[in-house]
């Protein structure tokens, strides 16, 4: 391999990105159909938040375990098992009610924990250090590409095709993803057992001692609340905004995420240095987006759709920046499990965006709920300001 070769864009990695695209295609439809279907079945905002939040809340618990098992058995073996379970979860949506949706979301959450860890650990292990952030950004880009057209497709299914078309779509996605996934090789630059993984208790102790991990996890937790509130309630909130359309909002947001991650894939910091100013700016963008959503009832569709842009930029840049930084500064013996803790914090934030903020919307309003999310994003920016220096741990 020459020094100029870009392995992040080589055919094996493009196949991994394509698999990520297929795997997350179902969510692009479910994120719109489930709130609408649940509301039609009589669910409250709190119940809808629970349904939508169950996905990431379950994912949060299984991230650290996923890191351990993938380290022990290798990403390829784990991937093939979870593709079967994911297919079963998608089929459940076609006949389940509100309670069944919670169970299916939990099954999906387990699958996503192992899937994303398998692919991201495979990418991080197989790429040179200077290309890590690009590989993670491209992976993230392909996970969001389905959400460009998925929301509009979901609205079409809901308005014209009904549950019959929804069932066909879920079964088709499950079959195509499973068949394609079994043919995709996952390479690793190091032997599976080359480093002895720590016990779960040991990784928790490392979590407490590793300040970079604590700071990045807290940031991701706070900002992910904004992202989760958008995912869970935009399909319902948009009906209250004059000129608002959830499909258009989510399409704009996804387009910004995909474009941002592609355009900035080589500019996202990938040197192990703490980019405090960059991260603080991204947190403030998320806060601005949430506040614009809060004001959309008074300010109209312009504020509503500008919020899609600012929140999309924040989503495009924050995650790959933080995970690339952590891939450099975390000790190698526990890196996989500790990245699992970081991803778990992101999952918890998305879950809280639906489950914890849903009752706020029930008691007050969507505007108050998004205002509260904006305040959390400001607190995240303040945390960055308080941690301007690179206080990484050197313990290996």
TrEMBL record:
The chain crosses the membrane at residues 12-34, 46-66, 78-96, 102-124, 136-158, 164-184, 213-237, 243-264, 276-297, 303-326, 338-358, 364-386. The keyword Ribosomal protein does not apply. GO terms for cellular component: plasma membrane. Keywords: Membrane, Transmembrane, Transmembrane helix, Transport. InterPro entries: MFS, MFS_dom, MFS_Exporter, MFS_trans_sf. One of its GO terms (molecular function) is transmembrane transporter activity. Its main location: membrane. It is found in: Cell membrane. It is a multi-pass membrane protein. This is MFS transporter.
